[in-house]
Amino acid sequence: MIYLNIYVQCSERIIYVEIYVGDILQMKKSHVCKSNTMKVLRVGADFRLECEKCGHIFMIARSKCEKNIKSVIHKEK
After folding, report:
1. How many structural domains does the chain have?
2. Contacts of 4 (CB under 8 A, 6+ apart)
3. CA-to-CA distance for 45 and 57, rounded, in angstroms?
4. Which of the residues 12, 17, 39, 47 has an alpha carbon 20 to 30 A from that of 64?
5. Which domain holds residue 21?
6. CA–CA distance from 63 to each of 20, 33, 34, 67 (Å)?
């Protein structure tokens, strides 16, 4: 199982979030097709995401993606 730990510092407290392959990310900004939900296909120094609406697959830098995550919907294990 591949996963990524994200530490987000927010007003002097650290929020710990784990992102696994197969999780759904709800982003702050929407894709060109007006969908803001992305499926995680690859985790590492960068993310490979797939748009849930149009199926477009793209790579994004981890630092940029971490800033744009609104919420994480974990898949059932």
Report:
1. 1
2. 18, 19, 20, 43, 44, 62
3. 17
4. 12
5. 3-73
6. 16, 23, 22, 7
Q: What are phi and psi of 19, to 5 degrees?
A: -120, 125
pTM over 0.70: yes
Q: b/e per residue, 39-73, with b = 16+ CB within 10 A?
A: bbeebeeebbbbbbeeeeeeeeeeeebbeebeeee
Q: Check: CB of residue 70 under 8 Å from CB of residue 36.
A: yes
Q: Retrieve residue 29's tokens.
A: 């900004």
The DSSP secondary-structure symbol of 77 reads -
Burial class (CB within 10 angstroms; exposed 0-12, middle 13-18, buried 19+) of 25: buried
Could you read off the pLDDT of 10-31 as tens digits, one per residue? 555 555 678 889 999 999 988 8
